User: What shape does this take?
Amino acid sequence: MSDAPLVTSTARRFLALGTLAGRVGASLLTARVADLARGRDARATNRAEVLVRNATRVVETLGRLKGGAMKLGQMLSLHAELLPPGVADVLSALQKSAPSVPSEVMEGEARLALRHFDELFATFDPVPFASASIGQVHGATLRDGRRVAVKIQYPAIDQILRADLSNLRTVMASLFGMFSDADFTPIWGEIRDRLLEELDYTREADLLRRVAALHAHVPEIVIPAVIDEATTRTVLTMEYVPGIAPDAACSDRYPQDLRNRWGVVVFEWLFRGLFEHRLLHADPNFSNLAFREDGRVVVYDMGCVKEVPTAVALGYARLLRAVLDGRGGDIPGILGDMGIGFADGSPIPSEITTPFLELFQGMVADGTPYTFGTDATLYERVFALGWQHAGDAAEVRFPPDIVFVHRTLAGHFGNLGRLRATARWRDIAVPLLERAEATLLPRRRVRR
Assistant: This one.
């Protein structure tokens, strides 16, 4: 990683984001006018082309700016396989480490936040081992000899992020308008709230402790411990917990049966958070995970965690039950109960939901192993179905609470694809679902 100056000037960031918003807005307006003369299929094709062009503009700009801009760019990525190739190429770069800020700047920020810096640390590594949108991570050694990871916020990132929000809202609202006529305000509120929460490292420290306690009986999940005396709102110090990086874990260096074990741990981690704890680690960036040769998985970065409302968790549990039982006719009603339907109050018809049901039933067929990532046509068919019904999607309304749940599910399914994880996923999903149903529906007889 090369050192790069952080763009902190409000005027320069305003100009960059304002220019981006103007270009995207003009492009979308032109496309909408042109669509008036096109048929339904031609409109869908044109929307795909416009998405590629404008999403590429968005991520190129956001990746340079870091802060809330880059973080929001990462949020655009559900997973590369679900996006057009031109966008996927750019997004894959955005999800990796950004250019680092000079170490003397970051050590200076740490010293400002930790008045007893020299009493706490025996050594501080000048070269960061991770660099992201809100801050970067440096290795260090405490005076008692323990190795730690010190996550430090970029200078003035709080003010930078808040200043970015109005322009980011304009850009996102323009892109959202391509797909839906729904009110973007509550959806933006959900995104904004998650962004602002990441600025408080004391909140993240509390979540690390909370999630670690919830998984105290799950040895397959490793959560770094917080070093309280070296943690503030802008500096988070954790025990150093090394692991195998995702790129290496997905390589032929490790046997497939080990990758399968890792995949099962990630799968269970995902649905345990959604159904049982209703506390979802909502940043599926693969770099937030590391892997151990004994089959354990290390989870980093609790900055983006979604408290899942019980009604939302119940809705997803009912959807999974319908998929497992092959009850496609129930899905429109379940979606309606979740607040997902057309603007006029009518449910999404079965002719739209059934093709998706058939796709995902293959993953959880009874007694049949399924390998994520090898069915190249799966993502292509999901994407094709989405564009086939793009006109209907514009009229769909959905609750903001599902934004991060959907992002997390899609992202981790993609991560499982990178691992080429193979298992009898139905056998794993059923116990997780039954425990969820027992909790979410305590007075109802659960259908087996």
In short: The CA atoms of residues 294 and 314 lie 34 Å apart.
